[in-house]
Predict the structure.
Amino acid sequence: MASATAPAAAVPTLASPLEQLRHLAEELRLLLPRVRVGEAQETTEEFNREMFWRRLNEAAVTVSREATTLTIVFSQLPLPSPQETQKFCEQVHAAIKAFIAVYYLLPKDQGITLRKLVRGATLDIVDGMAQLMEVLSVTPTQSVWVACQQMPQIPRDNKAAALLMLTKNVDFVKDAHEEMEQAVEECDPYSGLLNDTEENNSDNHNHEDDVLGFPSNQDLYWSEDDQELIIPCLALVRASKACLKKIRMLVAENGKKDQVAQLDDIVDISDEISPSVDDLALSIYPPMCHLTVRINSAKLVSVLKKALEITKASHVTPQPEDSWIPLLINAIDHCMNRIKELTQSELEL
């Protein structure tokens, strides 16, 4: 006969508050890959841009509020009980998932560039909250609040998103060009980096440095041939900057919000210009390999011409016969031809 008094069901033991925070951080980080590759939610309803942005901003405010609440309760003693912590963690997890759900409502037809920016902001918020969970018991991080506060600054349409990305690319190339010019003007690409070493070890410098692997003088400075090759390289970077500035101007003046695919294509190819400029800029530093400079120059020229072709064929160039595109192409070709002349001997070795 069964006992009249059945044993009470075991109550699951909750982890400690800090363990729960660490577990939540792990759960949030598991969401990041899904956000990176997740597709927009399919729906038959017409996209309401105003409602989407209102909901996204409201979701960001909710995430920020939950982060603030959690920080307050964990910044003082006594810490919340395991039961209270469980409730706080559930609210944070729900707020993050709600924000991600709103992001998934942004369809691709609103523009890939715009969607990338919103996705990036979403990843920042999720990652920022995960960081907060990980370090809350030591030093609260500000990243999740910063990410949430940046939501109102995100462009509201793909044209605005394209202009933002193009402006960033112009600034990147401008910085690279200024650094190259400064190095050339000083005629000392590593100015100041080894002064202390040279002064302190002037007596027993030469042979010992060679043995230890320190660069010799020929590795620190440009030869006459190097300096001659740098001139068309600088001109090519200037042409890159001019190309990006012209493309940005055309998008600003003639870009149409509903031509999302063409705007995305322009941004995608323009995004390749800055890394190509960086590769060329790095290759001019001594010890310079002329063949590497030639290869990187050719890669940059290929990207620039493709960017000009895509821009010329798009709606932002209402008059494709405008002379600025052929002029830029001629300038680019002139730079590349000069680089080929100066590096021809490398191919003959």
Observations:
- The two ends are 98 Å apart (CA to CA).
- Residues 67 and 89 are 10 Å apart (CA to CA).
